[in-house]
Amino acid sequence: MIAPPDRTPLPRAFFDRPVLEVAPDLLGRILVRTTPDGPIALRLTEVEAYDGPNDPGSHAFRGPTARNAVMFGPPGHVYVYFTYGMWHCMNLVCGPEGRASAVLLRAGEVVEGAELARKRRVSARNDKELAKGPARLATALEVDRALDGADACASGETPLKMLAGTPVPSDQVRNGPRTGVAGEGGDGDLHPWRFWVANDPTVSPYRAHVPRRRRS
């Protein structure tokens, strides 16, 4: 008999570790987004680690800005950024305050509240695609910059909370180059920091960085 996922909230100490420890350990954990219409729960199946000043692919590589300020704060908080003028992406801050490392939540399986996620992801062909990719994940969970800085470890009713879930066994975890990262940060030999659950249908396809062409 398979035990149900553990609904115990993850403590802040879980996130107060090196990002390369936290990232693979987030696979199988449950993210709960509480909305006015009800909760949506997501089992994480794909993440990417970003290691601040040691990582040319990180938003925090060159230091703090108004955009990335949350990354320099306490662990367990949510960093949300807006990209390509269209999409939001969601991260969880890791390590000690001031270290600026974070895990990008790339994909997951909606395990509760699928009917709410479908209303936000009307283009999804099936439920496996509801949160298949970081922008789709944020859209399905109704996450935008208003949630930047939210505390995923706070007690009581909060808009976002991480639960223990069912950790993925290490032999089912795969890793490789991060998706769409340019330059040295996208080198899979130097930074094989994308982690995913083997053979899970909700994991997004890998895509190398493609430079954007400037309009003439």
Report on the structure:
Belongs to the DNA glycosylase MPG family. Its EC number is 3.2.2.-. This is Putative 3-methyladenine DNA glycosylase. The model has no long low-confidence stretch (mean pLDDT 93). The protein starts with 5 loop residues before the first strand and ends in a 19-residue tail after the last strand. The chain is built from four helices and nine strands. The chain has a single domain, classed as 3-methyladenine DNA Glycosylase, Chain A (Roll), CATH 3.10.300.10. By secondary structure, the chain is mainly beta. Strands 1, 2, 3, 4, 5, 6, 7, 8 and 9 form a nine-stranded antiparallel β-sheet that branches.
Give a nutshell description of this structure:
It comes from Streptomyces corchorusii. 12% of the residues lie in helices and 30% in strands. The protein is built from four helices and nine strands; from the N terminus they run βααβββββααβββ.
CATH architecture: Roll
Succession of helices and strands? EHHEEEEEHHEEE
Largest sheet: 9 strands, antiparallel
User: What is the typical, i.e. mean, pLDDT?
Assistant: 93
- Determine the number of helices (DSSP H or I, runs of at least 4 residues): 4
Low-pLDDT stretches: none
At the first level of CATH, the class is: Alpha Beta
The total domain count is 1
Specify the helix fraction band. Answer: 10-25%
End-to-end span in angstroms? 62 Å
In total, how many beta strands? 9
The name CATH uses for the topology is: 3-methyladenine DNA Glycosylase, Chain A
How much β-strand is present in the residues? 25-35%
Question: For this structure, what is the CATH homologous superfamily?
Answer: Methylpurine-DNA glycosylase (MPG)
Which structural class do you get from the secondary structure elements?
A: mainly beta
- The backbone outline, from C-alpha atoms, is globular
Radius of gyration: 16 Å
